Amino acid sequence: MPSEATTVRREPLDPSGAGAAIQRWTLTAGPYEASVLTLGATLHTLSGPDRSGRTAQLLLSTDELAQILGPARHYGTVVGRYANRIDGSSVTIDGQNHPLAPTGGGMTIHGGPDGFAQRMWAAEPVEGGVLLRLHSPDGDQGFPGALDVTVSYTLSYAPGAGGELVIDYRAVTNKPTVVNLTNHAYFNLAGEGSGDVLGHLLTLDADEYTPADERQIPYGRTEPVAGTPFDFTVATPIGKSLHDDHPQLAGPGGYDHNWALRARPASGGPARAALLEDPVSGRTLEVLTTEPGLQVYTANKFQGAVTGASGVPYGPFAGIALETQHFPDSPHHPAFPSTELRPEEEFRSTTVLRLGVS
């Protein structure tokens, strides 16, 4: 059946307060709705119906500016210039070392202390959604090259087929650099504030993952998931093996790892990476991507610092992040897919969030 028209509206996050400078763009298509903030190019909310037609907000989020700028500063944001971890807070490109702004623990995570998640992006409407732009100057957080980035969010709905949110990333540089962009949304298909996600079923299209040290820096190799708590090749409750006595789970207290996805199509289009299902509500989320990796984080360390619209503080396992990406610390591991971007190239990445009911 044909898709229904998508409406797009813009308003301040907080017209009367300190958040007035932050724009909220709301996309509505049938029973599905998404909102995007210009601060951090953030996917702020995403809602859809369950099998009985009841709508819920499916992302962990808050409208309180102090929390958005504090403990929720990465919730739903576009993370860059380099998502995830870079060991030693430095990269070497063409034989030249570039020290990066450190974030602690002997590494730079999520692009540095003033990464893309903390920036105000320019926004403009596009068909079915919103396009956001950011200029990152040469030397930003230590990364070489001036980088011009665009991220678009477009929402569509076709009766009988569910809702689909497409995130398209593009970037160009004037000097060789490294780029790894992702979205850091936390999902709870039962609805934010409804409890933990340990009963959600997760399927990952990955036969290997990248084991890591106690700081979650990969060793530089992949290992089979078969026979380990990392095997989600068939639908498995997230909590089934999360507390197993396995050395890779002890440090992070759950999952905070990168899975090496099965080969992407030769056509360059997105392929499935994950399927998340809530057996109670019937809601499903299929994640498709052009990226080679998927970081899964089960909010192991949450301690109630953020309270959502439901009025419930988010505790451990209140949501799950499914971050499509290149592998962590790739600049130091030549065997990993390269994250280098050169002036004659364009960084292109697409992630599709496909919502439905079963």
From TrEMBL:
<dbReference type="GO" id="GO:0030246">
    <property type="term" value="F:carbohydrate binding"/>
</dbReference>
<dbReference type="InterPro" id="IPR011013">
    <property type="entry name" value="Gal_mutarotase_sf_dom"/>
</dbReference>
<dbReference type="InterPro" id="IPR047215">
    <property type="entry name" value="Galactose_mutarotase-like"/>
</dbReference>
<dbReference type="InterPro" id="IPR008183">
    <property type="entry name" value="Aldose_1/G6P_1-epimerase"/>
</dbReference>
<dbReference type="GO" id="GO:0005737">
    <property type="term" value="C:cytoplasm"/>
</dbReference>
<feature type="binding site">
    <location>
        <position position="256"/>
    </location>
    <ligand>
        <name>beta-D-galactose</name>
    </ligand>
</feature>
<dbReference type="InterPro" id="IPR018052">
    <property type="entry name" value="Ald1_epimerase_CS"/>
</dbReference>
<dbReference type="GO" id="GO:0004034">
    <property type="term" value="F:aldose 1-epimerase activity"/>
</dbReference>
<comment type="pathway">
    <text>Carbohydrate metabolism; hexose metabolism.</text>
</comment>
<dbReference type="InterPro" id="IPR015443">
    <property type="entry name" value="Aldose_1-epimerase"/>
</dbReference>
<dbReference type="GO" id="GO:0006006">
    <property type="term" value="P:glucose metabolic process"/>
</dbReference>
<comment type="similarity">
    <text>Belongs to the aldose epimerase family.</text>
</comment>
<dbReference type="Pfam" id="PF01263">
    <property type="entry name" value="Aldose_epim"/>
</dbReference>
<dbReference type="InterPro" id="IPR014718">
    <property type="entry name" value="GH-type_carb-bd"/>
</dbReference>
<feature type="binding site">
    <location>
        <begin position="84"/>
        <end position="85"/>
    </location>
    <ligand>
        <name>beta-D-galactose</name>
    </ligand>
</feature>
<keyword id="KW-0119">Carbohydrate metabolism</keyword>
<feature type="active site" description="Proton donor">
    <location>
        <position position="184"/>
    </location>
</feature>
<feature type="active site" description="Proton acceptor">
    <location>
        <position position="323"/>
    </location>
</feature>
<feature type="binding site">
    <location>
        <begin position="184"/>
        <end position="186"/>
    </location>
    <ligand>
        <name>beta-D-galactose</name>
    </ligand>
</feature>
<dbReference type="GO" id="GO:0033499">
    <property type="term" value="P:galactose catabolic process via UDP-galactose, Leloir pathway"/>
</dbReference>
<protein>
    <recommendedName>
        <fullName>Aldose 1-epimerase</fullName>
        <ecNumber>5.1.3.3</ecNumber>
    </recommendedName>
</protein>
<keyword id="KW-0413">Isomerase</keyword>
